[in-house]
């Protein structure tokens, strides 16, 4: 059952020492806040009665405003309940804020992007923003309505990108982002499902060229003589470490801390999927970490010098990881050019290469999928398959990492 409270949010004061009054809605253990546009000194707020004290000169007017707001939120909840529509604290607040406003596609997309930023999903937010920027570089109408995005519009948009020379898979990313925002708009009641254009419009994609290195190529990269401590050497070691951690993504690698090492294992949650991983450190992985003096670090220190120590906010740390990712890719391209490997390598190749080499050793697709954190071939039947134990995957990874 949803509960409503009016609170004085004392987490952050304004420069004049006042705090914002907020309506706090809680439903199914999830909470969403709505600003009441009222700012008070702590002594002017009655915590128990959830109202402004008479000591404030406009207390009657402000309390009437708060009572009215509470009733309006209750009306939204009752409307959802009467229609037997499922709701969350967020959807109730979102519906109230939307009110009678008929959002344009751009306005609604910007709200969704901000929600993603607030939730720490900066990568998805950036993808959405790039897609919206691309859309409105094609369509100059900033007030474009959801209903105007039909099959014909999408086809023209797609053709314009093809004429620009964009690859099919790049276009697919833009289109899938627009589709995701449209789906959110339907769920929020912004647009009726009858206008949904993606039932008829097919988002095309192409099979990507293999991004895997062979065992021989991987060994050439690992053993190639480089000056220890140089930038290209460090980034080669990051790549080798990622390979030894069963193709961990660069962003996850960058965010690993000393406390992620538990009993000789790296334990972490993948940012992209939220899946938990527990990977035994191989001899090579331990050798790489030894160079970076991991044993001397405190639990909250990053294992690798990718994220700067003075980057305190998550946004700044994510920016460091992206910069590190680009620099690592440049170093890898330079390295394989020196070696003579004619492939357009990136850090993500560590994941494909691990799978490719595991396959060459004869390991089953199921074991490879389990190690990478994928569903078994079929999402339903996969539920009934016993997971491979850590020891089986540990032995496989130990063998694969030897590159013999």
Description:
The protein is 49% helix and 10% strand. The protein has 404 residues and is mostly helical. It folds into three domains: 3-98, no CATH class; 105-199, DNA polymerase, domain 1, CATH 1.10.150; 215-402, Intergrase catalytic core (hpI Integrase, Chain A, Orthogonal Bundle), CATH 1.10.443.10. The strands form three sheets. Strands 1-2-3 form a three-stranded antiparallel beta sheet. A three-stranded antiparallel beta sheet has the order 6-7-8. The protein has a two-stranded antiparallel ribbon with strand order 4-5. A hairpin with a 4-residue loop joins strand 4 (45-46) and strand 5. Residues 376-387 have low confidence and may be disordered.
Map the helices and strands.
Blueprint: E1 3-8, E2 19-27, E3 30-40, E4 45-46, E5 51-52, H1 59-82, H2 89-98, H3 105-118, H4 122-138, H5 151-164, H6 168-187, H7 215-223, H8 231-244, H9 250-255, E6 261-262, E7 265-269, E8 276-280, H10 283-291, H11 314-339, H12 349-360, H13 365-372, H14 390-402
Antiparallel strand pairs: 1-2, 2-3, 4-5, 6-7, 7-8
Helix pairs in contact: 1-2, 3-4, 4-6, 8-10, 8-11, 8-12, 12-13
């Amino acid at each position: 059952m949803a509960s409503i409270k009016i609170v004085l949010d004392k987490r952050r004061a304004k420069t004049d020492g006042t705090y914002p009054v907020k309506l706090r809605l809680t439903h199914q253990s999830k909470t969403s806040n709505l600003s009441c546009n009222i700012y008070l000194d702590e002594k002017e707020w009655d915590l128990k009665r959830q109202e402004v004290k008479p000591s404030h000169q406009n207390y009657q007017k402000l309390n009437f405003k708060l009572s009215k707001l509470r009733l309006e939120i209750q009306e939204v909840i009752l409307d959802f309940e009467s229609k037997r529509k499922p709701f969350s604290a967020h959807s109730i607040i979102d519906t109230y804020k939307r009110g009678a406003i008929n959002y344009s596609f751009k306005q609604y997309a910007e709200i969704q992007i901000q929600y993603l930023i607030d939730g720490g999903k900066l990568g998805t937010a950036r993808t959405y923003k790039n897609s919206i920027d691309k859309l409105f570089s094609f369509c100059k109408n900033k007030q474009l309505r959801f209903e105007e995005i039909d099959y014909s519009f999408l086809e023209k948009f797609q053709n314009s990108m093809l004429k620009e020379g964009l690859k099919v898979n790049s276009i697919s990313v833009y289109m899938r982002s627009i589709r995701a925002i449209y789906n959110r708009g339907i769920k929020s009641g912004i647009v009726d499902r009858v206008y949904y254009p993606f039932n008829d419009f097919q988002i095309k994609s192409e099979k990507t060229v293999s991004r895997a290195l062979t065992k021989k190529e991987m060994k050439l990269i690992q053993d190639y003589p480089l000056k220890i401590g140089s930038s290209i050497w460090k980034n080669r070691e990051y790549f080798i470490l990622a390979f030894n951690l069963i193709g961990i993504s660069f962003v996850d690698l960058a965010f690993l801390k000393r406390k992620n090492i538990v009993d000789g294992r790296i334990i972490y949650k993948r940012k992209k999927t939220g899946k938990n991983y527990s990977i035994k450190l191989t001899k090579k992985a331990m050798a790489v970490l030894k160079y970076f003096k991991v044993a001397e670090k405190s639990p909250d220190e990053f294992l690798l010098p990718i994220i700067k120590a003075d980057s305190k906010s998550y946004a700044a740390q994510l920016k460091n990881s992206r910069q590190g990712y680009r620099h690592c890719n440049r170093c890898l391209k330079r390295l394989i050019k020196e070696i003579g490997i004619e492939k357009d390598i990136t850090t993500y190749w560590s994941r494909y290469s691990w799978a490719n080499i595991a396959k060459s050793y004869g390991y089953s697709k199921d074991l490879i999928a389990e190690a990478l954190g994928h569903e078994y071939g079929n999402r339903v039947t996969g539920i009934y398959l016993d997971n491979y134990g850590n020891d089986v995957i540990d032995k496989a990874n130990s063998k694969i990492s030897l590159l013999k």
